Amino acid sequence: MSPPRYVRLGVNVDHVATLRQARGTRYPDPVHGAAIAESAGADQITIHLREDRRHIIDRDLEVMRRTVQVPLNLEMAATDEMVRIALANRPDTVTLVPERREERTTEGGLDVAGQRAALLPHVQALRDAGIVVSLFIDADEAQVAAAAQIGAAVVELHTGDYCEAGTPSLRARELQKLHDGAIAAHELGLVVAAGHGLDLRNVGDVARLPHVEELNIGHSIIARAVFIGLDAAVREMRTAIAEAVR
Ligand code: PXP
Predict the structure, then answer these.
(1) pTM of structure
(2) Most buried pick, 153, 174, 209, 237, via CB within 10 A?
(3) How far apart are CA 169 and CA 34, in angstroms?
(4) Is the pLDDT of residue 99 over 80?
């Protein structure tokens, strides 16, 4: 009998910081959020240090590096400034994401196939420092192949289009793309993660995709925490994932 599958949950605490930044107060503190998420069963803490510092700020990363005990995953743009910050703080994983100042959240995956030459030195610098490099990409064969080629260890498949699909047929088509992308990535030796837009209703199908080892979830958990508390919201998502792959 094969052992039960375990899919890790990375809890993204950016939106605890969004609430803080909305008023320029010192609370709620995402560092506190990370501690609660960790004690509720998060397997990883994920934060996105954006160029405009709209939610997570440098201090949050610095303090979390010293306090978070599960792996810390830093999402960031592939820029010299961000690589310098990553090398100074040494998160366990860096996930390179595309970033445009005017977007509401990360829209679309990183164009690794089109930006190989620009990304390669950043990936190498991070790897040389012992940081695991993940690339946030669309589930597209060319992007998966390019990610493997430039030395990423992990790909995080962008689930946004699947989560936003308005009809059952569109949803099935997007899920099939994620399925094929996960298989292609695994065949090239990449660890497969997924994320963006996942909530209690849509997480099961993604958790059940072959080879998916990790899900990074933020907005829906923090939104749920407003009503039931963060500890309960993390536990609820952990249970939903565990039941989906049981
Ligand atoms: N994974 C990546 C790479 C992201 O950029 C984000 C959003 O910051 C997430 C996961 C989490 O997405 P959501 O907040 O929609 O759950």
Answers:
(1) 0.97
(2) 237
(3) 37
(4) yes
What 3-state class would DSSP assign to 10? strand
Is the C-beta atom of 136 inside 6 A of ligand 1?
A: yes
243, burial (CB in 10 Å: exposed 0-12, middle 13-18, buried 19+): exposed
Residue 175 lies in a domain: yes
Q: Tell me: the pLDDT tens digits for 154-176?
A: 999 999 999 999 999 999 999 99
Question: In terms of DSSP bridges, do strands 154-158 and 44-48 run parallel, antiparallel, or are they unpaired?
Answer: unpaired
Identity (one letter) of the amino acid at 216? N
Could you tell me if residue 180 is inside a domain?
A: yes
Tokens of 209: 């995709």
Would the CB of 55 count as within 6 Å of ligand 1?
A: no
Phi, psi (rounded to 5 degrees) for 228: -120, 0
Residue 51 lies in a domain: yes
User: What's the CATH number where 116 sits?
Assistant: 3.20.20.70
In a domain, 3, yes or no: no
Identity of the amino acid at 70: V
The number of distinct structural domains making up the chain is 1
Domain that holds residue 35: 8-244
Q: What is the pLDDT of residues 181-197, one digit of tens each?
A: 999 999 999 999 999 99
Residue with the nearest Cα to atom 4 of ligand 1?
A: 196
Question: What per-residue string of b and e applies to 14-23 under the rule 16 or more CB within 10 Å gives b?
Answer: bbbbbbbeee
198 lines ligand 1 (CB under 6 A): yes
